[in-house]
Amino acid sequence: MSGGGRWRSRHWQRRRGGRETLAVEGEARRETLAARAQGDWQPNLSVKLPQTSIHKRRESEKLRLRFCGEIRSIEIARMDPDALAKAFVEHYYSTFDSNRANLAGLYQEGSMLTFEGQKILGSANIVSKLTGLPFQQCKHNVTTVDCQPSVTQGGFIVFVSGSLQLAGEQHALKFSQMFHLMPTPNGSFYVHNDIFRLNYA
């Protein structure tokens, strides 16, 4: 084969590989769009992208995890707590800042929120509290995220610190928040415990 032919062959392979990758990602996105309104977090073990130069880690260590209609791929048996926490925190606060009512799917009837000392039980009551807060728009800026496996099998403790900027306010409020994430029988996660405090000191 001539030099030009070899170049065209390699070029065609690269182009074909790129289309295959986009096709896989597009199919995964379409399959999960229907779950967007559910709000829960369910890792999808079936999505496998073609191996490329940027996917050289072992399959058991590769983690691509997003929420609500995005590609979500993780090996639960070797779950990275820090990556899990980062993905959860990103989803939680982006949902909080855009539409707090959509957080309902992350809680269950046995979930408890302690908000500035006030204890609230159950998904409906928790969302009612969050949507009833005396501000319409806000922006969470996360500073730190720490995560540990909990004593309960499959659970995780996530601790967050950061600042909360309210619309129309000049100064941001510092806050701390703790989540206890628990697995469900279908492989998703929900918030079992949630503790929120503003830091005035």
UniProtKB/TrEMBL annotation:
Cytoplasm among keywords: yes
Gene Ontology biological-process entries: protein import into nucleus
Annotated Gene Ontology cellular component terms: cytoplasm; nuclear envelope
Localization: Cytoplasm; Nucleus envelope
Domain called NTF2: residue spans: 84-198
Pfam families noted in UniProt: NTF2
Subunit structure: Interacts with RAN1.
Functional summary from the UniProt entry: Facilitates protein transport into the nucleus. Interacts with various nucleoporins and with Ran-GDP. Could be part of a multicomponent system of cytosolic factors that assemble at the pore complex during nuclear import.
Protein name as it appears in the record: NTF2 domain-containing protein
Organism for this UniProt entry: Cuscuta campestris
